[in-house]
Amino acid sequence: xxxxxxxxxxxxxxxxxxxxxxxxxxxxxxxxxxxxxxxxxxxxxxxxxxxxxxxxxxxxxxxxxxxxxxxxxxxxxxxxxxxxxxxxxxxxxxxxxxxxxxxxxxxxxxxxxxxxxxxxxxxxxxxxxxxxxxxxxxxxxxxxxxxxxxxxxxxxxxxxxxxxxxxxxxxxxxxxxxxxxxxxxxxxx
Length: 189
Description:
Helices cover 31% and strands 34% of the residues. It contains 5 helices and 8 strands; from the N terminus they run ββααβββαβαββα.
């Protein structure tokens, strides 16, 4: 797992991605408080501290804080790492509504995929979301991930069974995806 944990923060022009630690708790609590529905499609809906504590302790996960300016505005993590298969998932991504529309998500995904493909030698980066989460599904298509299907009744939420929509970028897709993301970020400057 240490291969996935970058030695230095991943820095772009909009955000900096750094390993999550206790110093991020209050900034992220404030960011999550901007819209509690951020967690509506997760098992932690309405319980920020349970989410934060689990993120710090999840075996095998590499959680990150997304920093814009001088404060944490969201989070993401690597999970479900399969070194033999050279595959990892990027998930649990969320941003405060104040960061929506700023290309913070685009750059976060660019930095995390760049690290996974170019420094860690992954051949596949996966994403999954609640099939009802249209906002996230549109964002995944927008960053160049390919829709791969729906896993029905994939997991349980407090509200009942969840169908999960799966997306991925492979090492074959990566050069074109990276170029498109860089172009998009450049055009929005």
